[in-house]
Amino acid sequence: MEIYNLALPAMNRFSAGYLEGVPSVTQLFHYDYKQESHYKRRLEELKERNFARIELADHIESFMSRYPSSEEVKRNLAKLRKENSVAVIGGQQAGILTGPLYTIHKIISIIALARQKESELGIPVVPVFWIAGEDHDYQEINHVYVMRNGNPEKMVYPQKQLEKTMASQIRIDREECRRWIHEVLKTYGETEHTKALLEFVEKTLADAESIVDFFAAIIMELFKEHGLLIVDSGNPELRVLEKDHFAKVINNSKAIAEAVMNQQQTKSFFGYKNSLEMQANAMNLFYYDREHEGRILLYRNEQEGTITGKNGEISFTESELLELALKHPEALSNNVVTRPLMQEWLFPVLGFIGGPGEIAYWSELKLVFEHFGMMMPPIVPRLNITLLDRSVDADLAELSLDLLEVMEFGIERQKHIFISSIKDGDLDDIFINLKEEIKIRYSGIREHLCVKEPSLVPLLEKNERILLSQINFIAEKTKEPALRKNEAVLRKYDRIANSLRPLGIPQERVWNPFWYFNKYGIRFVQEILKQKLTFDGSHKIVKM
Fold first, then answer.
1. DSSP states of 266-280 as a string?
2. C-alpha distance from residue 214 to each of 93, 178, 451 (Å)
3. Which of 7, 68, 229, 379 could form a disulfide with 220 if both were Cys (CB 3.0 to 4.6 A apart)?
4. Strands (DSSP E) along 58-150, which ranges?
């Protein structure tokens, strides 16, 4: 394995500004993640705040007891109980088979940054992964992509889920999931690692009760040796630790909404689009109600002095909602605005690992944190990683293609240039001229019919379309011999595209880690963590 950095431009203007330290972007945050002194300032801030470390560590230890563990996990639980410890934290939804590669990249980033900061600061730093088990968007987590007929194709886990149920509460159909996983792995092809991978997945699945359970067990098997700690935001026991914080959100709901909107005005003033949809009467909390099909986002009804769902499904007075928060906190859950607050109240967060979308919405929360007398932690962009198979690297070299250009723009332009170079240009010109001649002739007939027989114009136009379609058909057929002769080269173009920019987007957003586990073995993530990983904004190319 070899890792090298690539200076790949950011996905959008805001992300680029954040990485480059543009003042109009950085002023939306409290800390500069690139400045070592800012982490020392963050430590001083954390010393002024109190955390229920023992209760939190006890909960995590209990929650993680059913998952693969190690001595390093036990050591990090002990560290978390220490008064001077801090955490590097990041989170993601519980995707089936872990979801896309970027989930794994995020966890690698959390572990790498925690390790780096513990060395630099000389204090205990624990890596924590926050599983977004309270999320209810099942369609985002119920599929993987596989290669079929030479193209990436979505393969959906067939278990139906009609209610808007939190992922933590979605019971997993083990037998149906097992059959589906076998079908997924069948598309990968058998390798020396397939048998062991199947045994691992089936053993993990046998003990899983829910979607989150299955996800957590896989993650811990992958990262237990690095002492990763995990929490499930949808876990009822965690909600008990959150009950007083829910009360704070309820009591300050107006101020939270106002703070977000004020910060959004500042962001808009500097020409950046806002990420969060915010209404002045938003509570920024969900109420979970099976009777009304899952989670209901709460709003204040100022006229009636109540708190209701958007469509009036349920109704509380503020005192009733406060009582619910304290007695039945499992009935409430956070939204995108209050989850960062809850994370901050529970953990002594030294740094938060986020993707481009997360960094964008955190930029709208600065005044919310200030309202509660806190500062946002340093927001550290997760490592952007692309796995480069050596056979694909060889294809790039053979076709004289530049990796940076392919990563940034894809390969369609280069492929089109190659196809143009092998076509019969003279024959192409003949077909082009023929189509132009037909269009001219039909235009003259159309002008005549518009005056003499307008009822025949639609028939004429249909006839023209059919004729042009037939010419296009035969024109394409004449290209087939040249394409067949160069089929091996064209396959190389497609192999590069499907590996590095499948569906025209980054590899990490499409492919699932299990394809790579099947090819390289489940331990390859350990090899990545052995490498020197720098948080310098560069794109990491991992040559496999």
1. HHHHTT--------T
2. 12, 12, 72
3. 68
4. 86-92, 125-131, 143-148
Decide if 3 contacts 542 (C-beta within 8 A).
yes
For 56-63, which contacts have Cβ atoms below 8 Å and span 24 or more sequence positions?
Answer: 56/80, 56/241, 56/346, 56/347, 57/81, 59/231, 59/237, 59/238, 59/241, 60/229, 60/230, 60/231, 62/237, 63/230, 63/231, 63/232, 63/235, 63/237, 63/238
Taking the C-alpha atoms of residue 350 and residue 43, their distance in angstroms, rounded to an integer, is 7
Token pair for 11: 């996905």
Nearest CA to 198 among 523, 213, 190, 170? 190
Taking only the tens place, the pLDDT of each residue in 228-253 is: 999 999 999 999 999 999 999 999 99
Placement of tokens 């470390």 in the chain: 53
Per-residue pLDDT for 292 more than 60?
no
> How, if at all, do strands 294-301 and 282-289 pair?
antiparallel
Nearest to 40 by CA among 369, 352, 351, 354: 351
DSSP state of 9: P
pLDDT bracket for residue 293 (50, 70, 90)? low
In this predicted structure, what is the pLDDT of residue 418?
Answer: 82
